[in-house]
Amino acid sequence: MMWPMRAEGGALILSATDLANFLNCRHRTALELGEARGKRRRPVWADPLLEALFARGLEHERNYLSGLDAAGKRIANLSEIKAREDALAATLDAMRTGVEVIAQAALRVGEAPPAAVGIPLAVSAVSGCVPV
Questions:
Q1: Mean of per-residue pLDDT scores for the chain
Q2: How confident is the model at residue 126 (pLDDT cuts 50, 70, 90)?
Q3: Span 60-77, average pLDDT
Q4: Which residues fall within 8 angstroms of residue 8, CB to CB, at 6 or more apart?
Q5: Is 77 helix (H, G, I), strand (E, B) or coil?
Q6: Radius of gyration of the chain (CA)
Q7: The pTM is what?
Q8: 53-81: buried (b, 16+ CB within 10 Å) or exposed (e) per residue?
C-alpha cells in the first residue's frame, strides 16, 4: 500500500516514494502536486506490463513472509489496512504485542507536518526497542 502525495490541513504530506520520484522526474512531482492540491486528476490507464510486475512483487512478498513464517517468526500482516491512521495504530499495537515481524508496517516520523510516512515490506523487531 502506498499513500500518494496529498495536502492535509494546509500542509503537504510526502512519502519516501515522493522524494524518489522528485529526484527522478521533477515534472512528475509537479503533476502530482497539482493532483494533491485538487487542480488536476491523475490519468488512469491499463498497463499489462506494470500489472505483471506488480503481481510478481506481491508473489515475492508472499514468498518472503512464508519463509519467515516457516522459520518460526511471529508475523503481523497489516497489508489489508488501507487507511493511514488505522495502519499507524495497528503497527503500534503489533509492536506492543511483541511480534517479531510486521509486514506492511506504517511508520511516521514526527507528529505534525512536515511528517515523513512510509510502508516498508517488513519490519523486524529489535531487542530493547519499544513504541512510544
A1: 82
A2: low
A3: 93
A4: 113
A5: strand
A6: 17
A7: 0.67
A8: eeeeeeeebeeebeebeeeeeebbbbeeb
What are the cell numbers at 121? 515490506
Which set of grid coordinates corresponds to residue 55?
Answer: 503481481
- Report whether 103 contacts 79 (CB < 8 A): yes
In this predicted structure, the answer to whether residue 80 has a pLDDT above a threshold of 80 is yes
Q: How confident is the model at residue 110 (pLDDT cuts 50, 70, 90)?
A: low
Residue type, 23: L
Predicted local distance difference test score (pLDDT) of residue 121: 62
Q: What type of residue is 9?
A: G
* Burial (0-12, 13-18, 19+ Cβ within 10 Å), 103: buried
- The H-assigned helical ranges of the chain are 16-24, 26-36, 48-70, 84-97
Provide the Cα torsion 105, 111, 117, 120; round to 10°: -30
Angle 103-107-113 from CA coordinates, rounded to 5°:
155
